[in-house]
Amino acid sequence: MKARVTVMPKKTVLDPQGKTVAKAIRHLGMERVTEARVGKVIELEIEGGETNEARRKLEEICRDLLSNPVIEDYRLEIEK
Amino acid sequence: MKARVTVMPKKTVLDPQGKTVAKAIRHLGMERVTEARVGKVIELEIEGGETNEARRKLEEICRDLLSNPVIEDYRLEIEK
Questions:
Q1: A with B: how many residue pairs have Cβ under 8 Å apart?
Q2: Which terminus of chain B has fewer Cβ atoms in its 10 Å neighbourhood, N or C?
Q3: Which CATH number fits the domain A2-79, given the four candidates 2.30.30.60, 3.40.109.10, 3.30.1280.10, 3.40.50.1100?
Q4: The pTM is what?
């Protein structure tokens, strides 16, 4: 199966990288961009099918390894 | 409208960050993870609706600012 984890800074957290990207985009001529936020995405290839046990373990990994729950939210999507 | 840009290292490009993440995940007890790739995601808030002009400009920004086409692929998704 495949899993995709998207980690974004929480809405309440300042995102200086996003602010810089938004400024750069406006500078390139797209003045209508009001906000940009930058996060990361981790794509995983996993042997075997989706089981409750695998999903539980993946949630644990998202929380403990891939994101910092104090300042980031994650979203876990599983394919197949 | 909202736009989401996902930038991933090309399949043919070595991704040392991904390799480290895969190793760490296996170390945490999920040995079935065979590969991990790490990319970035940029979420944009844009005033006004989707137009051909806006999409064309966004593609340009993805290519010139948000990704490095030599080593990265991008995917642009537009909502609303």
A1: 100
A2: C
A3: 3.30.1280.10
A4: 0.92
The ipTM value here is 0.91
CA A36/CA A43 separation, integer angstroms: 22
Q: What pLDDT was estimated at residue A80?
A: 75
Which among A32, A39, A42 has CB closest to B48?
Answer: A32
pLDDT string in tens for chain B (80-residue length):
999 999 999 999 999 999 999 999 999 999 999 999 999 999 999 999 888 999 999 999 999 999 999 999 999 999 87
Minimal CA separation from B33 to chain A, in Å: 4
Closest chain B C-alpha to A70 CA, distance in angstroms: 19
Q: With an 8 Å Cβ cutoff, are B46 and A30 in contact?
A: yes
Cβ contact A39–B37 (<8 Å): no
Q: Kindly tell me the sign of the dihedral angle through the C-alpha atoms of B47, B80, A44, A10.
A: positive
